[in-house]
Amino acid sequence: MKVLTKLYLNASVALMAAASLNLNAAPLKINDIAPDFSATTIAGKSIKLSGLNRNKPVYLKFWATWCSYCVAEMPHLQNIYDQYGDDIEVITINVAMNDSIAKINKLFSAQGYNLPTVFDTKGKLTALFGVVGTPHHILIDRNGKIAYRTFLASDTLDAKVDGLINSTNNNLGQ
Q1: What is the 3-state secondary structure of 49-65?
Q2: Which residues fall within 8 angstroms of residue 165, CB to CB, at 6 or more apart?
Q3: pLDDT value at position 172?
Q4: Which of 57, 113, 128, 170 has the most CB atoms within 10 Å of its CB?
Q5: Do the beta carbons of residue 49 and residue 34 sit within 8 Å?
Q6: Strand partners, 48
Q7: pLDDT tens figures, 106-134
């Protein structure tokens, strides 16, 4: 019972904090064109959504180091990146609320993560994609359309990732 209470309290605090991220955000719907953006990863690499390989789907994960669900899902995302890195662009976007690059680097170093990560200092990407809570997963198909969005990683999310990768590979004759 103590574990459930602790999880409930953590989830409540995370949702309240995350809700303050962007209350005026209008979430993108499935089949909406994903808005283009430019950003720099914490490793110093420039990223432009429209500049990514358009023969690959894109997986965006909005997260924070203080979000217990976000951190618990990271091994899953690292596995997708390691297993399908040639077939999908994976980018994590830290919402930068009560967080720091030092905390991200500490977590990544301790766990061996090497995911491309953007620190959304001014919340521009969070607002652009209508994200109001963490974790938040967005899949973009190879045509630049929102294919799926969800809060928690699940079997459905995995199936959507597999479907996007398989449809991309089938269209490329692989």
Answers
A1: HHHCCCCCCEEEEEECC
A2: 57, 84, 87, 88
A3: 46
A4: 57
A5: yes
A6: 38
A7: 999 999 999 999 999 999 999 999 999 99
**Can you give the pLDDT at residue 20?**
44
Distance between CA 163 and CA 123 in Å, rounded? 30
Beta partners for 89? 58
Question: DSSP assignment of 24-38, as one string?
Answer: T--PPPTTSBPPP-E
Residues 94, 105 contacting (CB under 8 angstroms): no
Is the C-alpha dihedral spanning 139, 25, 104, 54 positive or negative?
A: positive
The two structure tokens encoding residue 92: 């994590």
Q: Residue 51 above 70 pLDDT?
A: yes
Rounded to the nearest angstrom, the gap between the alpha carbon of residue 29 and the centroid of all alpha carbons in its chain is 16
Element (H, E) at 90: strand 89-94
CATH H-level, domain 2-171: superfamily: Glutaredoxin (3.40.30.10)
Q: What is the 3-state secondary structure (H, E, C) of 98-123?
A: CCCHHHHHHHHHHHCCCCCEEECCCC
Has residue 17 got a pLDDT over 50? no
Residue for token pair 């669900």: 69
Task: Kindly report whether the global pTM for this prediction surpasses the value 0.90.
Answer: no
